[in-house]
Amino acid sequence: MSDVPERWSQASVYPDMWADPDADPRNNDEASPDGELATLQDYLSNYRLTLQMKCEGLDPEQLARRSVPPSTMSLLGLVRHLAEVERDWRNWILPGDPAPKLYGARDADFEGAVAEQALVDGAFADLAREQAATDAMLAEYPDLGARVGQDGTAVRELWVHRIEEYARHCGHADLLRECIDGRVGQ
């Protein structure tokens, strides 16, 4: 007997995918968005949805399961981390004192990701709230070349950085989910 789960996919059309095209909420038959901002928003939306899909169907213990020692990374930790990061991006834009950390000092987002349903529910609520707040703030800057914050960061850079952050962590989520129950797919 092995503790290593057997690899599997829910998809039957393309077995290396997470779900069949007709069942994948990221797929649509429409043309790609027009314009740079709409394209950036579409990519970010799809990566956010990918993270959510990687977490679906798992219980608190599975969501809090860490990768490999000494890493503290888990799917739940990634959710908490991305909520924290969304807040941090707003801190780059807003003048004055930054909003306080959601989960405490450095790495507390990962360290505090424990297998409790209330903590799981709170993390997903935090992520949704922080995403909405950052989206609302950036909606005030439709010019991607606009410079914001004390450092004069381009709005475009904030959008691209957000996409990069989610894309990188969706790659981690792929591996974490496969280790949990063997499910594979993009």
TrEMBL record:
Domain of life: Bacteria
Family annotation (Gene3D superfamilies): dinb family like domain (1.20.120.450)
One Pfam family here: MST
Transmembrane spans: none
SUPFAM superfamilies the UniProt entry points to: DinB/YfiT-like putative metalloenzymes
Name of the protein this chain belongs to: DinB family protein
Region (Disordered) location: 1-35
InterPro entries: DinB/YfiT-like (IPR034660), MST-like (IPR007061)
